[in-house]
Each structure stands twice: as structure tokens, then as C-alpha cells.
């Protein structure tokens, strides 16, 4: 997007929504032209997101950290076939703790800081807490 005239386009998009032309200080024509030129780079529903080996290593370190902070049954990340987050931690069927407890929240916050996961925005994973 930046190479096509949208110089203020962010490195990361939070909340799964791209900023609009007004937010980025460009005309809608420039924004649309850049969007059209870059559309092929977006993952489609039938093409898995390709997460970097560095991100996989980071989310694996995060899982190990949570396990070491009192939750030995915390799962490793699961690749996500589509969507804005390339990995999730699926807690469905995991026993031994309440995923909504303050203790889990404390471990998640601690491990997020330790592993630097999500420093520039929301963490790149989701927690299935149903």
C-alpha cells in the first residue's frame, strides 16, 4: 500500500479492519488504486495464512510460558486456515483450569510481556473460551 501512494498505511491492522482513506490522508482514488494493486497479497478464504517461523516460535514460547506459570495442560497453538490470526489456542476440552479465571489472566499477561507477543497491537492469536 505504501509503495502505491498510501504512505501512512500501518504495518499491522488491528481489529481485522483496514483504515480508510480519510484516516490515512489520501484521496479515495489513490486508496482504491493501491487496494486494487495489493489485493492479490491478501489471504483468501481457501488459502491458509502463511505465518512466519518466527511467529510460530513466539507462540510456542508463549504456550510453554503459560504452562510454566501454573497451567500444565495449556495447549500448543493450532494453525488457523483463514482469518486475521494465523494461530489460535483452542481451550475447548482442556481440563484442569477455568480459562476465565483471574489466575489465567495473570499468566497470560505475564507471558505476553515475557515473550513480547502482541507488543504492537492485539496478540496474533485468539482464545476459544466457549
Helix-strand makeup class: mainly alpha
Q: Radius of gyration, rounded?
A: 18 Å
The secondary-structure element order is HHHEEHE
The count of β-strands is 3
Contiguous uncertain segments of 5+ residues: none
How many structural domains? Answer: 2
- Note the beta-strand portion: 5-15%
Number of helices: 4
Please state the overall shape, judged from the principal axes of the Cα atoms. Answer: elongated
Please tell me the overall pLDDT. Answer: 76
Largest sheet: 3 strands, mixed
How far apart are the termini? 37 Å
Task: Identify the strand order in the major beta sheet.
Answer: 1-2-3
Q: How much helix, percentage-wise, in residues? A: 25-40%
Question: Would you spell out the secondary-structure blueprint of this structure?
Answer:
Elements: H1 21-24, H2 28-38, H3 53-68, E1 78-79, E2 87-90, H4 102-115, E3 125-128
Parallel strand pairs: 2-3
Antiparallel strand pairs: 1-2
Task: Describe the structure in your own words.
With 130 residues, the chain is mainly α. It folds into two domains: 2-41, no CATH class; 53-128. Helix content is 35%, strand content 8%. It has four helices and three strands. The protein has helices at 21-24, 28-38, 53-68, 102-115, and strands at residues 78-79, 87-90, 125-128. The protein is elongated. The termini are far apart. The model has no long low-confidence stretch (mean pLDDT 76).
What characteristics describe this protein?
130 residues, 3-stranded mixed beta sheet, 35% helix
Amino acid at each position: 500500500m505504501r509503495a502505491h501512494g498510501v504512505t501512512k498505511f500501518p504495518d499491522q491492522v488491528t481489529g481485522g479492519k483496514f483504515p480508510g482513506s480519510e484516516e490515512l490522508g489520501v484521496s479515495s482514488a489513490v486508496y482504491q488504486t493501491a487496494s486494487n494493486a495489493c489485493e492479490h497479497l491478501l489471504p483468501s478464504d481457501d488459502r491458509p495464512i502463511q505465518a512466519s517461523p518466527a511467529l510460530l516460535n513466539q507462540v510456542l514460547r508463549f504456550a510453554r510460558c503459560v504452562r510454566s506459570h501454573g497451567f500444565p495442560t495449556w495447549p500448543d497453538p493450532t494453525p488457523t486456515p483463514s482469518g486475521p490470526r494465523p494461530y489460535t489456542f483452542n481451550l475447548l476440552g482442556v481440563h484442569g483450569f477455568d480459562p476465565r479465571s483471574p489466575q489465567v489472566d495473570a499468566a497470560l499477561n505475564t507471558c505476553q510481556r515475557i515473550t513480547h507477543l502482541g507488543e504492537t497491537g492485539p496478540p496474533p492469536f485468539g482464545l476459544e473460551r466457549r
